[in-house]
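Most newcomers find our protein records easier to grasp once they have seen one. To make this concrete, we reproduce a full record directly below:

===
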Amino acid sequence: MLRGIRTRLTLWLAGLITACIVGFALVLYLAVGQVLTGNLDRTLRVQAQQVAGNFDFGGSESQGDPTGQHVDVTSIDQFATAGIFIETFNTRGRLLARSSNMSRARLSLSLGAARPTPRLWTQATAGGAVRVYTLPASRAGLPVGLVMVAASLNGVTDTTHALLLLLIGGGLTAVMLVVVGSGVLVRHGLRSLDEMAEVAESINAHRLDRRLDLRKPPREVARLAGAFDTMLDRLHEAFAAQRRFVADASHELRTPLAIVRGRSEVLLLKPDLDPETREGLALVRDETGRMGRLVANLLLLARGDEARAIDRRPVELDGLLLEVARQAHGLSPTVRIAIGHEDQAQIQGDADLIKQVVLNLVDNAVTHTPPGGLVELSLTVADGEARLAVRDSGPGIAPEEIEHIFERFYRLDRARGRHTGGAGLGLAIARWIGQAHGGRIAVESTLGQGSTFIVILPISNQTLTIP
């Protein structure tokens, strides 16, 4: 199905112009045929009137033979011209004379002789169609005979056929030019829409400051571009207000949360607390800590939304990996943390942010790995990129959920909860930090066998592979 506007406009424009060309050619063909036939008819009428007024019908009759074998062919030639055939008859329908150019051809006058009125018609003969005109002749108001004048239509037919061939050839050439020209014109006319599409495709939540800057667009497209820019202004203001709110609210929540957590820890130090109070204070401390981590993550995401430049310094990834592995041993006593293949690699970036990415991935892997399972960290270098991989032996991720796991606040329903799976921001933060360093995060997962998260970052130095 032809759904493209460019294709539709080209076909409609080409079809409309083609229809106009065909209509014009048809009218021209018919008009030329009518004009040529009309000119021939006028010539026949004039010739017939000359013969009817000057021919001696009485004298010619005496020269005739009752059998019609001896016909005068000289007395009528004085009226004949090239291509005009003439015959005269008396009132009884007897042939009196004929022009010499008729040779032995004889035109049927059964209809013409039977009517004493002028008549014009087309008659088919062995040599082609002829145009015939009959005119009664009279003297002193009395009929004395009949004049028949004829001319071949071959000249008219040849002219109209030649014209038809020219129209067909010229029409096909014009249609081809129209199709090509229509495509070029439509493409040029829709260029502004293509520019709008390119700009619109480059706009996202982090690039709402872009605007359409079209070069002399048509008035209708300019109006659409103006409405689009106005919409982007409103979206930019709304996103900016949302980011400011998240950043301000998170910042304001950090202090009271720290106070509540600190106060609960102090109260837990009292030895005379009853078990129920101690349990309640421990719950307050733990939930306050979880809220503090959530606030910190929101602040980090707000920083990412503002597209602030990160502090780039040399970072030794192999040393960072060892440090993360040491810290990860305390996350779960039932899950084993191991380091697999480890290359040496250095990147330009923020060490704290890179460390947070790996810690988030390790924490996520430990959370989803059953007791007795393994979480393995590795660092490999290939094609100028460093690959930090965190592999777990958990239940794996369904293919239809992989494309959503980096969305904010998204949780795997079968494995995550608010108390065991966090707030659903860890992977979103990891993706933003990877992108901020010019890298990306890839996921490989098989149900029932585990998942592998790979942080791919561009390296900045020569690497040494340790066997």
In short: Confidence is low (pLDDT under 50) at residues 60-70, 109-114, 414-420, 462-467. Residues 219-305 form a domain with the Helix Hairpins fold (CATH 1.10.287.130).
